[in-house]
Design goal:
It contains eleven helices and 15 strands. A hairpin with a 2-residue loop joins strand 13 and strand 14.
Length: 355
């Protein structure tokens, strides 16, 4: 008798959606990609070439996809503005959910996903913070957790994308939630992981510039941002995000403790090749986010599948996704308002919101 496989559908076949689809199709042995949804004609044509020949049914209506015979789980990688709506529909249709980050650019909407998930405790619902599945970050966390650097006190992390002159990120800013919600959401999630998911924010402050894409200003966004988050209990997180790296993708993290520190990807490299040339020695680095975290996405797909099939706990709590969005939104607001935002010991905001 053949081993049972999880029947999965992928919603959204854009840059990340297509990769998710191929991961579940080719690199997740315990899963079977049976359906995919996209309203985009170009993505439909891609799916007909790469998915349909493998028995995957292509839908242009999300609700119809949810009715696919035997479907058990949905991977949501559509535009951010519909993440929450589609996740809730999937849960109400009794499907497990793996949703790309963030759940929403709104704290309230993100919370609504958690609220529906609580009403369906038999379902596995996870937000895809891919760095938690990266071998290097897991190694760093285990070393910190073992006490090797004393008490972790300062967390410095960055997400820096290679410059895309096409204008993609300008248009994307219409619905991305801003650079702190979009880019730094991964770094924020890492800080909550390393400092503890129960960490309570004391204050946030942020500054930013539009160094290469001034059009971002009309969406109240920047292409370089720095955010400082102070936590109750004597901990600080420093976040940097950028859209203008010349050499390629550079995402790195530094965890500083009372007895030492750990760094992850401080000196990035695409391969182990160093090039000795007339002008010196150089190495190439990954050109995009996927080039750095490809294996993490594959691990994520496999661990989500295992949790669904084995009825085990998913690797991260859904409530953490709401915490990350809350901090990201506060940083974005602090950036645009030009003010520091404070919270009391329970996490309740002390100042009136400024938009």
């Amino acid at each position: 008798m053949a081993p049972k496989k999880l029947k999965v559908a992928c919603a959204g076949l854009g840059r990340m959606g297509a990769r998710h689809a191929l991961h579940f199709l080719n690199r997740t042995p315990r899963a079977e990609l049976v359906a995919a949804f996209t309203p985009d004609e170009a993505e439909v044509q891609w799916a007909k070439q790469h998915l349909e020949p493998n028995g995957v049914t292509i839908y242009t209506d999300y609700d119809e996809m949810l009715k696919h015979p035997g479907l058990q789980a949905v991977v949501i990688a559509t535009v951010t503005t519909v993440h929450a709506e589609q996740a809730i529909k999937a849960m109400k249709a009794n499907k497990h959910v793996l949703c790309e980050k963030p759940l929403s650019t709104s704290v309230e909407v993100s919370q609504s996903v958690v609220d529906v998930a609580k009403k369906h405790p038999h379902l596995k619902v996870m937000c895809g913070f891919s760095r938690r599945f990266d071998a290097s970050y897991r190694d760093a966390f285990q070393r910190m957790d073992s006490g090797s650097i004393g008490r972790a006190s300062v967390f410095r992390s960055q997400t820096c994308d290679k410059l895309d002159p096409s204008g993609f990120f300008v248009e994307y800013a219409k619905y991305s939630g801003g650079i702190f919600v979009d880019c730094n959401i991964h770094d924020i999630d890492l800080a909550l992981w390393f400092f503890g998911q129960d960490s309570i924010v004391k204050s946030v402050a942020a500054v930013g510039i539009t160094a290469v894409q001034p059009e971002l200003r009309k969406y109240k966004d920047v292409d370089n941002g720095v955010g400082i988050v102070e936590f109750w209990g004597g901990k600080i997180a420093y976040f940097y995000s950028s859209r203008m790296m010349a050499a390629g993708q550079h995402d790195m993290t530094e965890i500083i403790g009372t007895e030492g520190k750990l760094t992850v990807n401080a000196n990035p490299q695409g391969t182990l090749v160093d090039m000795y040339e007339p002008n010196g020695i150089r190495r190439e680095i990954p050109q995009h986010y996927y080039g750095r975290f490809e294996q993490a996405f594959v691990t994520e797909a496999n661990e989500f599948t295992a949790a669904c099939l084995d009825d085990s706990t998913v690797p991260l709590k859904l409530t953490g996704a709401v915490q990350a969005v809350k901090i990201g939104c506060a940083l974005q607001e602090a950036l645009n308002a030009g003010t520091k935002i404070n919270f009391d010991e329970t996490g309740r905001r002390l100042e009136k919101a400024r938009l």
